[in-house]
Amino acid sequence: MKVAEHALAVARIQTGQAAPEDKARVAAWDRLNGLLATLDSKTSVLLRFNAIVVAALAYLLIISGTDPFMGTNTAVKVVGKLVAHGSLLAAVVSCGFAFPVINVQWDFFGRRLDGPAEDKSDFDNAALQRLADLVAHRTRLYSWAWRLAVLAGIGFAVLVAVATLHLQGSTG
Length: 172
Known about the structure:
mainly alpha, two-stranded antiparallel ribbon, 4 helices
């Protein structure tokens, strides 16, 4: 639904000129768009969290070249590397699930970037169902992104805890 169509539908409702079905459709449309906005906001935060985890783990595993488990037994070293690489992979895959959830505004200065601007989509039950399907799809993607981000965060926390305990044990 275009902005002008939505504004006109809301104005008709407010002036009492709309049919009950139109009132319900506009309310449902607004609710679904609100859910998309919430998903977009939550996904932005999740991507920032993933960026921190990916940056920290990438630095630790790839860039720094130091072994946080140097001097430990082989089992601790192997488990530490497995947890670190697994957490890095989980955070990157989480980003892959999260990117499609972010809302892209295709209208840019009044022009459509993905197709002709004169494409008219009717505001009917089929359009409402397409929007509901989009909300359901993005919710599933966000759910998987969140689960993987939690897994990556837990792995990173375990890695930091083991490294910290190892450092305290070797200095004490």
